[in-house]
């Protein structure tokens, strides 16, 4: 039987009539910030930086490439984790959970497709014509693939929920490890195929996820040892030159627990934890809007002038752009909600009421969104785009 951890280990904060487990929101906040930072590096820095800062560009590229087995895998583990009870409920009670992310995917596929049909400077996976649009409705290739994947993964997890979780996870891991063998040119389509393992882990083995995150392991939760192991494993895998899918899967075996432990540690940090948790409850507007902000910045006077070849400015450049992209995205979201554009961030219609159930122990955390870790309220008071190649872990400009 799972024994709840003390509050110091699993901090909670009040929220909307229930309690929230803070480390989940913190982990969501970390994940979306890493996504924005990645895009600031691979999309903007390479364009803004002069040749004299090639070393800085390469250094940032190595850092964000090394974080790839943590960024989206962690996001999908959290998505599955908060859906762990829903995958066992009748379809009539959970249809919005499948429909909502696909609805949002279609909305933002069309809107961002229109924006980036005009804005051509930022490196993007662009939907070029109606034929590609039809294909993207069936299998996402653009930067909003995460929303498409959430819908598909939930349906798959629900269909497979009656089978032994170990067999499902083993089969999903084989699919992930062999994804490179399918010769998929579009990186985002490769990502849709590759990441189901992580959603299935959260949805079908939530107790394991919670143990990985919350089990005490000394004052630092085992994070230093995991960090050392992750760095060593990353260096080893780069030397082995494995296929992309095998490289990412093996690295994530350490990377995902590391991300979970870091989130739990940060959840004890007071104001930083509250800030990260606040961001983690508003990931959807950041996710769908930040590339528009990054693209706009390419047409404005530079926030940091890199033409003088300043290494310090080169190092700070992606961090500053990421902060601006997050703040502007959240500001735009605030304005859009006050203009009544709630349909941009939530499936219209009255949400289904969950059935009243007798209290019971559960590994599902009520704190997280009914729609996964990109949760955002439609009320004003609350609240990855890339290249076509999947040839290697350092080649992608996507999340």
Automatic annotation (TrEMBL):
<feature type="transmembrane region" description="Helical">
    <location>
        <begin position="320"/>
        <end position="347"/>
    </location>
</feature>
<feature type="compositionally biased region" description="Polar residues">
    <location>
        <begin position="365"/>
        <end position="399"/>
    </location>
</feature>
<feature type="transmembrane region" description="Helical">
    <location>
        <begin position="246"/>
        <end position="267"/>
    </location>
</feature>
<keyword id="KW-1003">Cell membrane</keyword>
<dbReference type="InterPro" id="IPR002656">
    <property type="entry name" value="Acyl_transf_3_dom"/>
</dbReference>
<dbReference type="GO" id="GO:0005886">
    <property type="term" value="C:plasma membrane"/>
</dbReference>
<feature type="transmembrane region" description="Helical">
    <location>
        <begin position="279"/>
        <end position="300"/>
    </location>
</feature>
<feature type="transmembrane region" description="Helical">
    <location>
        <begin position="190"/>
        <end position="209"/>
    </location>
</feature>
<protein>
    <submittedName>
        <fullName>Putative membrane protein YcfT</fullName>
    </submittedName>
</protein>
<feature type="transmembrane region" description="Helical">
    <location>
        <begin position="99"/>
        <end position="118"/>
    </location>
</feature>
<comment type="similarity">
    <text>Belongs to the acyltransferase 3 family.</text>
</comment>
<feature type="domain" description="Acyltransferase 3">
    <location>
        <begin position="22"/>
        <end position="330"/>
    </location>
</feature>
<feature type="transmembrane region" description="Helical">
    <location>
        <begin position="138"/>
        <end position="156"/>
    </location>
</feature>
<keyword id="KW-1133">Transmembrane helix</keyword>
<feature type="region of interest" description="Disordered">
    <location>
        <begin position="352"/>
        <end position="399"/>
    </location>
</feature>
<feature type="transmembrane region" description="Helical">
    <location>
        <begin position="163"/>
        <end position="184"/>
    </location>
</feature>
<dbReference type="Pfam" id="PF01757">
    <property type="entry name" value="Acyl_transf_3"/>
</dbReference>
<keyword id="KW-0812">Transmembrane</keyword>
<keyword id="KW-0472">Membrane</keyword>
<feature type="transmembrane region" description="Helical">
    <location>
        <begin position="221"/>
        <end position="240"/>
    </location>
</feature>
<dbReference type="GO" id="GO:0016413">
    <property type="term" value="F:O-acetyltransferase activity"/>
</dbReference>
<dbReference type="GO" id="GO:0009246">
    <property type="term" value="P:enterobacterial common antigen biosynthetic process"/>
</dbReference>
